[in-house]
Amino acid sequence: MVACFQSLPDWSFQKLFAGKRVLHFAPESAIRALVQPLAAGYVTADFLNPASDLRLNMCQMDCLADGSKDTIIACDVLEHVPDDLQAMRELRRVLSAGGTAVLTVPQGNGLKVKVELPPDASPADRLRLAGQEDHQRIYGEDFAELLQQTGFHVTPVDESCFPAKLVKRYCLRPPMLSTHPLATNHRKIYFARKVV
Length: 196
Hints:
Elements: H1 2-6, H2 13-17, E1 21-25, H3 29-35, E2 41-46, E3 54-55, E4 69-75, H4 84-94, E5 95-104, E6 115-116, H5 123-130, E7 137-138, H6 143-149, E8 152-157, H7 164-169, E9 189-194
Parallel strand pairs: 1-2, 1-4, 2-3, 4-5
Antiparallel strand pairs: 5-9, 6-7, 8-9
């Protein structure tokens, strides 16, 4: 993973995390192991998991001051929150000037705009329409635009941004594409920088 990021000079682990105040939502242990030793301060957050440092609703992070974090990591979190645009505004508020949110979301293949499920959708409907029983939505190609609407400068990164040897070594492109209508064959990482 680090090798992939190192091939993107603007988004290297050193630039994103070294000496930074990092907030990590729904922390993945592998990412935590790479980021925590670099960070000046590293805090985990989750709405449901009591093992996290903060039990935090991403839509209303009142316990965090404006500009108090330099980097925020949220991989596959925004599809779970009730109001994703409010969560994006809160992420921007909490970031320092020039700070970056590192985000991933499930995006349907060929889906142009996000599909928002009704609040009363059953778990079975959520599974059928958005791929998981607790998903509120599935994103389309408009995800970067949604981030821009909330004040971010967005750089999407996918397998086309990496050298072929890294794509093959780290399986950044699935060897076989799924035909399932909710498959996310072409994953992206979104670097959302707070511009002031």
